[in-house]
Amino acid sequence: MDTVPPRSLRSLPPEGAPADLGAARRSSVPRTYLFVPGNRPERFAKALASGADAIVLDLEDAVAPAAKGEAREAIAQWSRQAAAADRERTVVRINDAQ
C-alpha cells in the first residue's frame, strides 16, 4: 500500500469549499487591512498598491484631534476623484460624535 505524505491543515480547503478556494477568498470579505492616517493623502495610493485586501483611512487614533478636520477634508477630496474599484477597497474609521 502506498503511503500518502501528510498535508498541512492549512493546505486543505474546508469541507464543501469551491475547488478554487483562492478565488472564493478574493471575492469575499477582506483578510488584510492596512491602516493609513486620514491626514496623509499622499499615502493613500501607495496603500492601495501595497497588496492589502482593503485600506482603512483612519480618523481615530492615527490623527491628532487638531488635524481631524484636515483629515476629513483630505478623505472627502480623495473619494471624489478615486476610481470606483479603489473606493470599494476602502473603509473610513471614524470616532463617535463628541
Shape: globular
The main sheet orders its strands as 1-2-3
Listing every helix as H and every strand as E from the N terminus to the C terminus, the arrangement reads: HEHEHHE
Measured between the Cα atoms of the first and last residue, the distance is: 70 Å
Q: What helical percentage do the residues reach?
A: 25-40%
User: How many individual helices?
Assistant: 4
Low-confidence stretches: 4-11
Mean pLDDT: 81
The secondary structure category is alpha/beta
Determine Rg (CA atoms, Å): 19 Å
Largest sheet: 3 strands, parallel
Measured by DSSP, the beta-strand proportion falls in 5-15%
DSSP, total strands:
3
How would you briefly describe this protein structure?
This protein is an alpha/beta fold and 98 residues long. The protein contains four helices and three strands. The longest helix has 14 residues, at 68-81.
Which terms would index this structure?
alpha/beta, 98 residues, 31% helix
How is this fold's topology laid out?
Elements lengths: L20 H6 L6 E5 L6 H5 L5 E5 L9 H14 L2 H5 L1 E4 L5
Parallel strand pairs: 1-2, 2-3
